[in-house]
Design goal:
Layout: H1 16-28, E1 32-35, H2 42-52, E2 57-61, H3 68-72, E3 73-75, H4 77-86, E4 100-102, H5 104-110, E5 116-120, H6 127-139, E6 141-144, E7 149-152, E8 158-163, H7 171-175, E9 178-181, H8 187-197, H9 203-217, H10 228-240, H11 246-250, H12 257-260, H13 264-276
Helix pairs in contact: 8-9
Length: about 280
């Protein structure tokens, strides 16, 4: 295990359950699969782990059309063709290895130091991609077909995998991971988060901001509920506004709805509610 356990950072507040599952996953050298709605801090947890353990972070952003080989390595045939045609390259065209570029997983495997590997939004990929990727991560090796060379991980990375639960993951995939569901913070936890980011925010304003935020999140018919990052940006907007009137806010005025709601329908619904009643 690492010489120090993960326990959050000065800007990332965690509860005991997350603390324990992160550290046990590091101890067991198993990928940690994080599920939860967007904005619950799944991605930022990987950044916090890398910062706390003083490790580099490599991020693989999964796309729906992505093939596993793209995450492992790419063979740059076009550059090799151009080098062979124009004869002005310093690369040896006969050596295919000069045209092999490591993908994100390949970079993690070839790193001289242990790193944190974040595989973000795995649920975008099809089940074959998921299962084949876990085979590679289990074995900690893959083959470069063009050179008949096997790449083995020099240092086993700490692997964090996120899913927004847009579609089910395969049973073989789930069986090879530790799992944690990150629930949306309750008001008590959210207050801790706000206090970390805004330690000088007065108590009553903090309480009213949290109350208004959760009421807005629960408006009927909202498609994309504002997440923690929207709340933090909202507070930044309130702090930056020289015309912000705390008395009006305490009496129910809710400014900058566009910071909280990013979809037109949600924004208009919140605007309509605001015009008809106070929170």
């Amino acid at each position: 295990m690492e010489n120090k356990n993960f326990s959050g950072t000065d800007k990332y507040v965690i509860d005991d359950e997350i603390d324990r599952i992160v550290n046990i996953s590091i101890e067991l050298q198993m990928p940690l699969l994080l599920k939860g709605e967007p904005g619950t801090g799944k991605t930022m947890l990987a950044y916090a782990i890398s910062k706390h353990l003083n490790m580099s972070l490599i991020v693989l952003n999964v796309k729906s059309s992505m093939k596993l080989i793209e995450a492992l390595y790419q063979y740059d045939t076009l550059t090799r063709l151009n080098d062979s045609r124009f004869k002005d390259s310093k690369r040896d065209v006969s050596n295919i290895e000069n045209y092999i570029k490591m993908g994100k997983i390949g970079q993690a495997f070839t790193s001289e130091k242990r790193i944190v590997l974040l595989i973000d939004e795995i649920d975008k990929a099809d089940s074959d991609f998921q299962d084949d990727m876990l085979d590679v991560l289990d074995q900690m090796e893959f083959d470069i077909i063009e050179t008949d060379k096997k790449i083995r991980a020099k240092k086993r990375p700490i692997i964090i995998i996120t899913s927004n639960a847009k579609k089910d993951l395969s049973d073989p995939f789930l069986g090879r991971c530790n799992f944690h569901h990150i629930a949306f913070p309750d008001p008590k936890m959210m207050k801790k988060i706000i206090n970390v980011h805004f330690p000088n925010l007065e108590k009553k304003l903090t309480e009213d901001i949290i109350k208004s935020f959760y009421q807005l999140r629960e408006l009927e018919g909202i498609e994309k509920k504002p997440a923690t990052r929207e709340l933090i940006n909202w507070i930044r907007a309130l702090n930056a506004d020289s015309d912000f009137n705390k008395k009006k806010f305490f009496s129910g005025e809710i400014p900058f709805l566009g910071v909280l709601f990013k979809k037109s329908g949600d924004y208009n619904r919140a605007l309509n509610i605001r015009s008809r009643r106070r929170f």
